[in-house]
Specification:
The chain is α/β, with parallel strands linked by helices and 283 residues long. It contains nine helices and seven strands, in the order ααβαβααβββαβαβαα. The chain has a seven-stranded mixed β-sheet, with helices on both faces. α2 runs parallel beside α3. The longest helix has 17 residues. The radius of gyration is 22 Å and the shape is globular. The model has no long low-confidence stretch (mean pLDDT 88).
């Protein structure tokens, strides 16, 4: 009986690994973004770093489109070509791992399954995942510049973290001919984002903005918050600790995904009116 149970548990684990999307519960911000089908063809998931699961939602969208199984609205029938655009190759490897976790093994070609490694994904030389239905997912970097993104005609672009404006404009051109779309997940840091904010404010790009609050860290259908890899519960107490150790100037962006940092005057809690003197001269 124990051997049979062990075999059944092993089969269940293998099934879960081969089709992870069936077993994952998503948070409200992730689900809201995945349901968003903007007429502009561009949508943004904006949040802080390493909490809401921005990239996981982005990779879920990629898998749905590659397999032609988007449950919320119709997309182009496979085969399709999708680009996942990251900042650097090292970042790309981490995103390839998330894509690999979510992609159904039965839908990938044997060559794609055999070539993947956790250390280097599908390698540095044009890393690509191929599906049996003919869909192709290519992983590219913005460090290659705008010229490297030119020339191709594709169906969907998934951008993780802020790109340069020139790169973004070039990527948008790649999907025009096929009526494709562009999805972004990012924290507004490390690159200028004023141009991106202008697109959102003007209504040219729809967005879901997820701040770091307890209800955004609880999967739909559950009352238990998400956990870190070491088992730490991401509850209100955990959020309070993050706010305690994060400099107040950067907290709005790093934790809540706001467009701008706080004013310089609130960087130090101890700074106040008693530090301001009108009778001091610097000669």
């Amino acid at each position: 009986a124990l051997l049979e149970l062990d075999e059944e548990v092993g089969e269940l684990a293998e099934s879960a690994a081969s089709e992870m999307l069936r077993w994952i519960r998503w948070t409200v911000p992730q689900d809201a973004w995945l349901r968003l089908n903007p007429p502009t063809g561009m949508k943004l998931l904006r949040a802080g770093n390493q909490a809401i699961g921005k990239t996981w939602a982005l990779m879920r969208e990629v898998v749905w489109r590659a397999t032609g199984t988007h449950p919320h609205y119709p997309t182009r029938e496979p085969p399709v070509e999708i680009w996942v655009v990251c900042t650097s190759w090292s970042q790309s490897v981490a995103i390839q791992q998330k894509f690999w976790t979510l992609a159904p093994r039965w839908g990938l070609t044997s060559r794609t399954r055999d070539r993947y490694t956790q250390r280097s994904g599908w390698g540095k030389d044009n890393p690509t995942a191929e599906f049996l239905n003919g869909s192709i997912v290519r992983f590219r970097t913005t460090n290659q510049g705008a010229e490297a993104q030119a020339g191709a005609t594709i169906d969907y672009v998934a951008i993780d973290e802020p790109p340069d404006e020139e790169v973004f404009r070039e990527l948008c051109k790649r999907v025009e001919r096929r009526g494709g779309q562009v999805g972004l997940s990012l924290t507004p840091v490390n690159r200028p984002c004023a141009w991106l904010r202008a697109l959102v404010d003007a209504g040219h790009m729809d967005e879901v903005h997820a701040t770091l609050i307890p209800e955004n860290l609880i999967p739909i259908g559950s009352n238990v918050p998400l956990r870190l890899g070491d088992g730490t519960v991401m509850d209100a107490a955990w959020i309070a600790r993050q706010r305690l150790v994060t400099p107040k100037r950067w907290a709005p962006v790093i934790l809540d995904g706001e467009w701008e940092t706080a004013p310089e005057g609130v960087f130090f809690d101890c700074f106040g009116a008693r530090h301001v003197r009108a009778d001091v001269r610097l000669d």
